[in-house]
Specification:
Layout (H helix, E strand, L loop, with lengths): L16 H22 L1 H10 L9 H5 L7 H14 L15 E3 L16 E2 H16 L8 E6 L8 H8 L3 E6 L4 H11 L3 E4 L1 H15 L10 E4 L8 H11 L3 E5 L7 E2 L9 E3 L11 E2 L6 E2 L6 E6 L12 E10 L12 E7 L4 E3 L2 E3 L1 H9 L5 E9 L5 E2 L4 E6 L5 H19 L4 E6 L13 E3 L3
Parallel strand pairs: 3-4, 3-5, 5-6, 6-7, 15-18, 17-21, 19-20
Antiparallel strand pairs: 1-2, 7-8, 8-9, 9-14, 10-11, 10-12, 12-13, 13-14, 15-16, 17-19
Helix pairs in contact: 1-2, 5-6, 7-8, 8-9, 10-11
Amino acid sequence: MTKRFSYYESEMEGLSIAEIESRLAPSLQKQIGYCYANSTFYKRKFQEAGADPKDIQTFDDLRKLPVFMTKEDERACQEESRLEQGHPFGTHVCAPVEDLYLTGTTSGTTGVPTFTYTFTKNDLDFLAPRLAHRLALCGVGKGDRGLFFFTLGIYATTMTLWGLRLLGALPIDIDARAGTETFLKFANLTKPTFLACTPSLALYLIDKCPKFLGYPVSELKLKGLLTTGEPGIQDPNIKQKLEEAYQCPSFDYWSPAGHAPGVSCGAPLYQGLHAVAPEVCTSYFDLIDPVTQEPVPLEHGAVGQMVHTSLHRQACPLVKYAYGDVVQISLDECPWCGFKGIRAKLVGRADDMLIVKGVNVYPAAVKAEVMKFQPRVTGQMRIVLDAPPPRVEPPLKLKVEYNGQLAGAEQNGLAERIAQAVHDSLRLRPEVSLTPAGTLPRSTSKTPVFEKAYE
């Protein structure tokens, strides 16, 4: 067993889920009252739901409320505040605009970017130590250099840099739009001890490092690889490939919408994101069915879309925000590190979910089956859509890159084996077409999962 992962607030150690909910209930009550008093958006949402903020005393009370916000609602909020109040932060902003300290947007890959990552100084003072704790559990400490390779003009990941600095580590943040060659030259110059990027980019660098630096990524001599932004090391094939190539442990971390801080331990077999700071929000405790939006009971193995409600936020607090992440919850003790709190594995994005012959299909689950065929395949794939999702007229079409030289009969055989593996796992048989290595475009941010043939 490795070092035991722990809560940021040590007082929570040993508490049951019910006891943690009870401990956090006063924060919930205070936050709900604050949002109702300071936001026209939330006041309207409570009135539409026929609910009184004073009735929300417990997490169970909260779970009974309908979803108040989605990304489309947030975009509408932003447009309304832009036109009527002269700022883009939304009508759900609760703090005075002049008190905002840091702002940034989501990636905008599914539409107009949203200013979800907007904080006051007090917000960051509360959040940063918890982000630092999450990184410390991965081994980051004083004197380390963390090379961050994201599209930093978006800022969604830069809040993590506040936590990094608290640890006495030095962030080296490079905008991914500078390109892979520039990034690798900076890596060679600065000798980082940790690299943070998307898992697909980490895989991409394995091939590009020898080309631009003349040596393999193992020669970067990293102490750890920190991945976020998309499903990655929860797939054992991806985790193995990254750790063998970089010769260091890999960790998954996230804080979607600046909420739900989570981090994976160093277990050989991925054990999920450990919810090490539940005092930030209710996200791990509040799940809904991504289709019906009905509450999903919080029990071991439960699958549902996380719904974010802030417990400590001034600037743009979230209440019942269905952000899109669908997770599977574990409530047992982590068999590797002994963490006793909630753990979550990302199943996929609600807005990526497809419906094929009545079956809900997430691209991450399809890719997990494709990855089992490495090294015969590169791991790059696309789901080809002939019409707008989520409903797909069968068969589901997959385009998969293969490695090396394959004759026609060999291609047919590999395609059939991939189709059978997907069928055995997901109970649907895709139509698989193979394409040579390097023909599917890579991205320095999130690699797309769909090829939209209808556009």
